[in-house]
């Protein structure tokens, strides 16, 4: 049985979609982009939603080396099953630098400046057995 | 306008004190500061105090006496102590008050802080998915800085090694054992490139300062320390701060750069005039970045300075001489005032085993807090 996939937060990225994209908010008077769009940074009259680029470059990163406390963390891992995961900021050219989980958790395989692309990844299960998905960036494999 | 002086200082040992509440540690520090200058709680015309996790600071009146004193609670993240001091400074500088106290204390549970996304104006997804950790921010910020300025990971270890070396000489510090570089570098990797021993831990402690106008100060002491500058600045658009789901493409100068500049201007001195320095070292990377942001060196020069031991107690720029946050831990409300306590002690020549030599005349403190503010002081004897 295929589990239903539900986004960790409505309005964070387009979903369901064959081409999911992060949703930002463009402030028309200043040209500034904000993320996520659901956050009430600027007035509705002066702004509109924009879909952000799927590709960018790794601006910086770290590896989360210990199991975060719950709350607020909702991941399914236990102290025994926890594996360090990557977190980084990805620069989307001409847009913004977005904070994101990374699919890669080995620091030796991450380099500042490398090409990254956005993917939707399973993250946890809710009480109804649905798969909760979130966005992450992964290194572009065919990058020169 | 009057000069503002620090005439009394008090501290409760940092670390773990199970037998005392955070509040009691704050009261301990106030009593010690009062006794240091021969004043009593009833002499205090005002109090500014802060604690992030150990109760409302103004409840200290229950411990210290119901004198009717004007007591204002201050909350500004890791810069809470700096903000309490700034408030006290302004109260006296204005001429409205002659003498009062700035106090900070805290008591945090073990382990990394686990803040609520909503308290930072964020939606729950941010915490749910494992992004709501200050440790990640520190790791990412220094990762970028090391990359951009060609600094090695080992430089981070050198900062921590110095912190423990200084902490070993401070009876009020939490960590009192020196730790060798290999152990620091090979301890658990908490947030690459930062290992366990490069981080400060949430802890407990209290610190208090009695401030007075110069005229009042002269009545109680013949060795006042002058608070020549106290400044606080918040972030600009484009500054890289904790708990940011996104950032602007272009970087703005850090809040520290603005607060620091303003402090030097107010005091009429420059970084080259500072004899003893306390800067925020929530982890090794912060000390490295703050060395440059406060004007003590250029970006990228830190590793050479660390290898030359320039920031050691007997070096040309003694830094975090009491072991800093790394050896003292971080009780949020108290840290900023601990730094000033240490500088006053150094300027008085009373720092014992960790005393900076050649009679230091000018000291500097800097704290930095979420979500992007910085408070600096310049002190002179």
Number of strands of chain B: 12
Average the pLDDT over all residues of chain A and give the rounded result: 94
Q: Biggest interface in this structure?
A: A-B, 44 and 41 residues
Shape of chain A: globular
In CATH, what is the class of chain B?
A: Alpha Beta
* Uncertain stretches of chain A: none
Shape of chain B: globular
Oligomer: heterodimer
**Structural class designation of chain B:** alpha/beta
CA distance, first residue to last residue of chain A: 39 Å
Instruction: Record the strand order, biggest sheet of chain A.
Output: 5-6-7-9-8
The CATH topology of chain B corresponds to: Peroxisomal Thiolase, Chain A, domain 1
Describe the structure.
Chain A has strands at 5-7, 23-27, 33-34, 47-51, 55-64, 85-91, 97-102, 115-125, 131-139. By secondary structure, chain A is mainly β. Chain A has a domain at 5-10 and 54-139. Chain A has a five-stranded mixed beta barrel with strand order 5-6-7-9-8. Chain A is globular. The N and C termini of chain A lie far apart (39 Å). The mean pLDDT of chain A is 94. Chain B has 381 residues and is of the alpha/beta class. Chain B has a single domain, classed as Thiolase/Chalcone synthase (Peroxisomal Thiolase, Chain A, domain 1), CATH 3.40.47. Helices cover 35% and strands 20% of the residues of chain B. Chain B has 13 helices and twelve strands. In chain B, strands 3-2-4-7-1-8-12-11-10 form a nine-stranded mixed sheet, with helices on both faces. In chain B, strands 5-6 form a two-stranded antiparallel ribbon. In chain B, helix 2 links the parallel strand 2 (46-50) and strand 3 (70-73). The longest helix of chain B has 16 residues, at 22-37. The A-B interface holds A 8-9, 12, 24, 32-36, 38-39, 59-66, 68-69, 71-75, 84-85, 87-89, 91, 94-99, 101, 107, 112, 123-124, 134 and B 111-112, 114-117, 121-133, 135-136, 139-141, 143-144, 147, 188-194, 237, 244-249.
